[in-house]
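Researcher: Can you fold this with S-adenosylmethionine in place?
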Amino acid sequence: MAPTADEVNAVSRHETGRHLPVLPEEVLTWLDPKPGGRYCDVTVGMGGHARLVLERSSPDGKLVGMDRDPSALEVARALLEPFGDRVTLVHTRFSQVREVLDRLGMVPIDGFLVDLGVSSPQLDRPERGFSFRPENDGPLDMRMDPTAGETAADLIARVDEEELAQVIRDYGEERHAARVAHAIVEALRMGPVDTTGKLAALVARALPRHERGKNPATRTFQALRIAVNQELDELEKFLAVATDCLRPGGRLCVIAFHSLEDRIVKRRLRTLAGRDGGGPARLRILTKHVVVPHNDERVRNPRSRSARLRAAERL
Ligand SMILES: C[S@@+](CC[C@H](N)C(=O)[O-])C[C@H]1O[C@@H](n2cnc3c(N)ncnc32)[C@H](O)[C@@H]1O
């Protein structure tokens, strides 16, 4: 059942401008939350989708929200407070989903939601170090969880030129990865590359030509972000265990934002559906074609433009 306009507008009113959850109607359609159901939003972020799921599963549906970013959880906690003990929030990486749900006694679950990528506050706050925009200059950090692991500045200082080129090529799909890596390594000889502004400027200088309408550092920043947060590995690990946590008829909805993620989701769902020599089918793919935002959402919420949703159901 599609959400009412009121349900969707309620979120729009609360979340200003860029903080709208993407594909809100489609998430409710494909996840199909119901009263009494148990749901897990593994990328709860600011809680926009989670709230829709809780409203739709009223009065007694439960939701576990996970995020690796403690500041996202704080925002979600405030937003979801009216739902009381129907909500449990956990600071964790979603590769740990099985252990966490087992510990909470929440297996089997009725539905998983995954909304990949970075959140608007992560991108917009200069101190998080994700943004290549000159006005957002900050430390070159890029960790979704600032309490753990290596920053992007640490990473580029640690790896050699060849490894750096491979990261930028594989995760950024940057044709000029070797040039960019060379420029970074040369710059490091002169001093640290430890701010987003320094990195963005040196990537712009290293590229022979710039694509129209696209910041030249886009691909390099995407690559480093994926590497720092081990994003593809996290996704693979999650998809490897998610099916086991679902009850028969339980659903999995994944929203990806770039082709590397979407390719992993598409392949893994096909394998789990018994295609491509994947053994006996454990899932049924529900979205025959990938679901993308309608035009009005693209206009209202520019972040939604590259969103691609796929959904499947446990057999
Ligand atoms: C696009 S935002 C989610 C927004 C959310 N759906 C909402 O409506 O507010 C993605 C969130 O996923 C989190 N995240 C990304 N990878 C993660 C991982 N491997 N484990 C846990 N959280 C992750 C990020 O920290 C970020 O807060």
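Model: Folded with S-adenosylmethionine in place. Residues 21, 43, 45-49, 66-69, 72, 93-94, 115, 117, 119, 144, 234 surround S-adenosylmethionine (CB under 6 Å).
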